[in-house]
Design a protein that fits this description.
The complex is a heterodimer of chains A (274) and B (729).
Chain A: E1 2-8, H1 13-29, E2 37-43, E3 46-52, E4 55-57, H2 66-75, E5 80-85, H3 88-97, H4 106-118, H5 120-123, E6 125-127, H6 139-149, E7 154-162, E8 165-175, E9 178-183, H7 202-213, E10 215-223, H8 224-231, H9 237-242, E11 246-248, H10 253-273
Parallel strand pairs in A: 1-9, 2-5, 7-10
Antiparallel strand pairs in A: 2-3, 3-4, 5-6, 7-8, 8-9, 10-11
Helix pairs in contact in A: 3-4
Chain B: E1 2-6, E2 13-17, E3 28-31, E4 34-37, E5 40-42, E6 45-48, H1 56-68, E7 73-77, H2 80-83, H3 101-110, E8 114-118, H4 134-138, E9 153-154, E10 161-162, H5 169-187, E11 196-200, H6 223-234, H7 237-244, H8 266-292, E12 301-305, H9 316-322, E13 325-328, H10 337-350, E14 355-360, H11 372-384, E15 389-393, H12 416-430, E16 441-445, H13 447-456, H14 464-467, H15 487-503, E17 508-512, H16 517-520, E18 525-527, E19 533-534, H17 536-547, E20 551-554, E21 561-562, E22 578-580, E23 583-588, E24 591-596, H18 599-609, E25 617-619, E26 648-654, E27 661-667, E28 673-677, E29 680-685, E30 691-693, E31 700-704, E32 708-717
Parallel strand pairs in B: 6-7, 6-15, 7-8, 8-11, 11-12, 12-13, 14-15, 16-17, 16-18, 18-20, 19-21, 20-24
Antiparallel strand pairs in B: 1-2, 3-4, 4-5, 9-10, 22-23, 23-24, 25-28, 26-27, 27-32, 28-31, 29-30, 29-32
Chain lengths: 274, 729
């Protein structure tokens, strides 16, 4: 996914912090009760350690079945439980480290981890999630999908605006199938987004992107206040676009087509199912 | 000058090697105050600048800017993978000007500045593969092995890489190739020939942060070392068989443990833990000896430990016997000012020159993002609790980094540029480097219990370093049966000690029983958690300290027998010579061994006996149970972490002029606090220049922002302020 020689330049620290906190903080701001994790570690069929949110509860009882584990989690108001045989994590690590070869990228590591987790019961690990983990699609398919969505020689930009100021920005470029450059608005210097003239400033900004980084594939400019309602489905996409809380410029045909496919079926059925 | 031919055939690099009279005597020394150059001591304050990542045309301009901020020392890594090309040939400027190390040295020297070099071999530096050439990492003989026999990987950005084993003989042969190429260039630039004043031995040596006892390193080259180690420990195979409960006919039959099993002897596992510590020491020793093939023996050497590396498998005391300086790297946000304070308490207790060889200035993308406020408040917290030497990493911006005080074009980035210049001025005005923080008490960890914790840790191979950053009590993730039952009380006791000292407004450090004895001798009070079984060596140290005049507070249980073998421990016989509420004291030599079930009354009595003055700094903001002021209690694994148990902490230190003092206040909570400072009439914030006036006899009230630190100069001590006669009074 990332080029070994990736160029990370002119990153605005505040933008990075803001982006991070916006993503990480999203869950907390949903206002839902954060239920703790239950961890149950067993050896020779007996629970030797049980923790809820990092606090021990009495152990020493026989390790239950997965339904028993689920019931145990419910009885302690835990969000979900993870059951671990004492050697489970070592086996899990071995399962995803064994197939690695030097030169494999981060995504390959993630794929191996997911692959190992999809067979977690083989290593002595149980999780009481309602839906089990599925193995990732083949790497070749993922690479092709990635290349299709983000062709080489293109740049993507994401800007988050807050009360007339640039709250966060992220600019990604891709070469040879890998993300080759990460930057923020700082890389444009004085030619960066003129917040006072947003959104009228966008055509000029996109020209600047093209001049510096080559072809501009897509630009997403979003008001900070719209992120959460949009992601949680409280604000319809059309309304956000109409009110210019979200501006997509440029927005290529391939993304529009993906959107139509989503609207036609997959997305809706997925939403309903969830 | 001698001629030295470095490098292997095919990549020869003939370089001048210094051997002249200027190297017969050391001209540079690291001292507890900083760095001594030609007899003159300077605070060791430096900033990182990576020459190969900057335009050589800008080097001079950037160095001028660094010097303008008051820093006369820069620090740089020297990356193996950058200088060694894919064809195996080294480039030190012959092909690319950015790699011209000696031209960089020349620019530094031309400005009467100095440089600290870090040639690795591991340098991290956010480089792909952490600065190792691909051909080295790909070699199966070099790769580190896990307990399950697989190659150990580091999930580095932008790509993971197989971890090199510091037990591999092939690895050291490769390191020699690199050192043969680079070290003659460094040697030729050692002061006074050039600007190099210190050399770092590797970087954050810790099996690449994989410090789980049953995780790595099971490299085949290390196994014979392990066998020799345990055989030496027991003298004979028969004794080893007896202790381990084995029937080995020869030592080659002994395999290291790959997980804990109850039926096996605990000593078998504790010895593996001992060996893990030993392997790290062996690695430092080996790399240093490789460096010493090129530079004089008195060259100042130092090393850095990763953050939270203050217990197993790190033995700071022993590492410091190999180095002139050892420090802990710190990268935190201001929400963790208390944790930074605790790390500073550790280095202040356990190292000669309390230092942070890397202290976050700006940040890298794959870490918790930081702002300039984070960099500023955490630097102040470190200074508050005793750090007296910093290398700000990075003082100069570069790719894969953001937020440094000097940009790649040489311009200043505010407010950090001004802050770091002012911090330098704080050291200069108040001679901080000559004024170590000397609290009256130290709370002590014990290596034996830390090893026990490593054996009992249940989330192997997830690195304990990661878990200790999660604000949870480490012992909660350990076994709790048999000997492991004392782990939670061990952590709780240290937390209780910190709480009691805070309540009594007594400052303290975080030490270790087995640390450098002369540093331990500085504290009139030592507090060590003890249980019925205690490591015999630890008890001997505590007893020796008591005999030498220290008040050693043990408990909650009286140590009766040794942890290994159950031999009786020589606790003083007869009735206690003094006692109080929940404590008894036995006079031993010039000091005392004290057994305290509850700490606060005991420490109160000691403070009175030793005439220790309380800090006289406390929060005036009432507690509100609905709005917790401090983050939840954190795990004792990374120290005592008592800073997280209280909102407001303080340090008072006599200032340079003796007539006055510096008062440091830390608010580790997430709300504003109003803090009262006693025994002063007016204070001035060194950085903001805000003034705070008090009422005669009542001290001064100082507002504190959440997660912040103030450095206050006492403008008027209370005894110098004369109350004015009020009209009609």
């Amino acid at each position: 996914m990332f080029a070994p020689s990736i160029d990370i330049h002119d990153v605005n620290g505040y933008h990075w912090v803001n982006l991070w906190s916006e993503v990480v903080g999203l869950q907390q701001r949903r206002g839902k009760e954060q239920r703790p994790l239950m961890l149950v570690i067993h050896e020779d069929g007996v629970v030797i350690k049980a923790l809820v949110g990092g606090v021990p509860i009495p152990a020493g009882f026989p390790y239950p079945t997965i339904d028993g584990l689920r019931a145990l989690a419910r009885s302690h108001n835990a969000g979900f439980a993870i059951g671990l045989e004492v050697e489970a994590l070592a086996k899990l690590f071995a399962a995803f480290e064994r197939p690695m070869v030097h030169g494999d990228d981060f995504l390959t590591l993630v794929a191996h981890v997911v692959q190992a987790l999809s067979r977690m019961s083989d290593v002595g690990m149980d999780v009481t999630w309602s839906r089990g983990l599925k193995a990732l699609p083949p790497r070749l398919f993922m690479d092709q999908l990635f290349n299709l969505a983000f062709p080489d020689g293109n740049t993507l930009a994401l800007y988050v605006m807050d009360q007339g100021k640039v709250f966060a920005s992220l600019i990604l470029s891709k070469q040879d199938g890998l993300i080759s450059r990460i930057s923020t608005d700082d890389s444009l210097g004085a030619e960066g987004l003129q917040a006072a003239r947003w959104p009228e400033d966008l055509p000029r900004l996109n020209q600047e992107f093209e001049r510096r980084f080559g072809k501009m594939l897509a630009g997403i400019f979003i008001e900070r206040s719209a992120i959460q309602p949009l992601l949680l489905g409280e604000l319809p996409l059309k309304e956000a676009l109409d009110k210019k809380l979200l501006i997509r410029e440029p927005w290529p045909l391939r993304y529009k087509m993906a959107e139509w496919v989503w609207q036609l079926g997959w997305g809706r059925s997925g939403n309903k199912a969830s | 000058m001698e001629r030295s031919e470095g490098a292997t055939a095919g990549r020869r690099a003939t370089v001048e090697r210094p051997a002249g009279p200027e190297f017969l005597e050391p001209r540079v020394r690291i001292t507890p105050q900083g760095i001594e150059v030609d007899g003159q001591t300077y605070p060791l304050m430096s900033g990182a600048m990576h020459y190969w990542r900057l335009d050589p045309e800008r080097w001079g301009q950037i160095l001028d800017q660094v010097k303008g901020m008051g820093y006369s020392v820069v620090e740089t890594y020297i990356p193996w993978s950058v200088h060694e090309g894919p064809d195996g040939a080294f480039d030190f400027g012959e092909r690319r000007a950015t790699r011209n190390l000696e031209a960089f040295f020349a620019q530094i020297q031309a400005r009467d500045m100095f440089v600290i070099v870090r040639p690795g071999p591991h340098i991290n530096s956010e480089l792909t593969d952490f600065g190792f050439p691909e051909r080295v990492l790909k070699n199966p003989d070099v790769q580190m092995r896990t307990a399950t026999g697989t190659v150990a990987w580091f999930p580095g950005f932008p790509r993971p890489f197989p971890i090199p084993s510091y037990g591999s003989e092939v690895f050291y042969r490769e390191v020699e190739v690199w050192f043969d190429a680079v070290m003659p260039r460094i040697a030729a630039n050692l002061y006074p020939l050039g600007p190099v004043i210190a050399v770092q031995v590797d970087n954050e040596l810790s099996n690449f942060f994989r410090t789980g006892l049953y995780d790595v390193d099971y490299h085949p080259d290390l196994i014979p070392h392990y066998r020799r180690f345990v055989l030496n420990r027991y003298g004979t195979l028969a004794e080893l068989n007896r202790v381990y409960g084995l029937h080995l006919s020869n030592i080659e039959g002994l395999e290291p443990p790959r997980r804990y099993r109850k039926k096996e002897a605990l000593e078998y596992h504790l010895d593996w833990a001992r060996f893990q510590t030993r392997t790290l020491l062996m690695a430092w020793q080996r790399i240093k000896s490789q460096l010493l093939r090129h530079v004089p023996v008195h060259t100042p050497f130092f090393t850095n430990l990763p953050l939270r590396a203050n217990d197993f498998p790190f033995d700071l005391g022993k590492i410091e016997t190999l180095m002139d300086q050892v420090g802990i790297d710190l990268y935190y946000t201001r929400r963790d000012v208390s944790v930074v304070g605790e790390a500073a308490r550790v280095v202040n207790a356990r190292t000669r020159l309390p230092s942070c060889p890397e202290f976050g200035a700006g940040c890298f993308l794959t870490w918790t993002p930081t702002t300039p406020d984070d960099n500023i408040q955490t630097a102040l917290a470190a200074t508050m609790f005793g750090v007296r030497s910093f290398n700000f990493y990075m003082l100069v911006d570069r790719e894969r980094w953001y937020g440094s005080p000097i940009r790649t074009d040489g311009s200043r980035r505010e407010p950090l540029a001004t802050f770091y210049a002012e911090l330098n001025r704080l050291f200069e005005v108040h001679r901080l480097h000559e004024r170590p923080r000397r609290p009256p008490a130290a709370i002590l960890r014990q290596q034996s219990l830390d090893r026990l914790m490593a054996v009992g840790y249940l989330l192997q191979p997830i690195s304990p370093l990661i878990l200790s950053g999660t604000r949870q009590r480490f012992s909660h993730y350990c076994r709790e049966d048999g000997p492991f039952a004392m782990l939670t009380p061990y952590e709780k006791r240290m937390e209780a000690a910190a709480r009691a000292l805070n309540t009594l407004e007594l400052d303290y450090d975080l030490g270790e029983v087995e640390q450098n004895a002369s540093l331990l001798a500085r504290y009139p009070i030592l507090i060590a958690p003890t249980f019925e079984r205690l490591d015999a060596e630890a008890f001997a140290i505590l007893l020796a300290r008591a005999r030498a005049g220290t008040h050693v507070v043990c408990g909650p249980e009286k140590p009766l027998t040794s942890l290994e073998g159950g031999k009786p421990l020589p606790w003083p016989e007869g009735p206690a010579t003094r006692s109080g509420e929940g404590w008894q004291s036995w006079a031993v030599g010039q000091g005392a061994l004290i057994l305290a079930q509850t700490l606060e009354p005991c420490l109160k009595a000691l403070a009175s006996q030793l005439k220790l003055e309380p800090l006289g700094v406390r929060s005036m903001t009432p507690d509100d149970p609905a709005v917790p002021g401090a983050p939840p209690p954190t795990g004792a694994h990374s120290g005592v972490l008592a800073g997280s148990l209280v909102r407001v902490e303080a340090v008072r230190q006599a200032a340079y002029q003796e007539t006055s003092e510096l008062v440091w206040i830390l608010n580790g909570g997430h709300r504003q606090e109003l803090v009262q400072v006693d025994r002063v009439a007016s204070l001035r914030d060194f950085f903001s220049q805000e003034s705070f006036e008090g009422t005669y006899g009542r001290g001064v009230a100082v507002p504190m922002e959440p997660y912040s630190v103030r450095v206050l100069e006492v403008v008027t001590p209370v005894n110098q302020q004369i109350p004015t006669l009020q009209a009609g009074g």
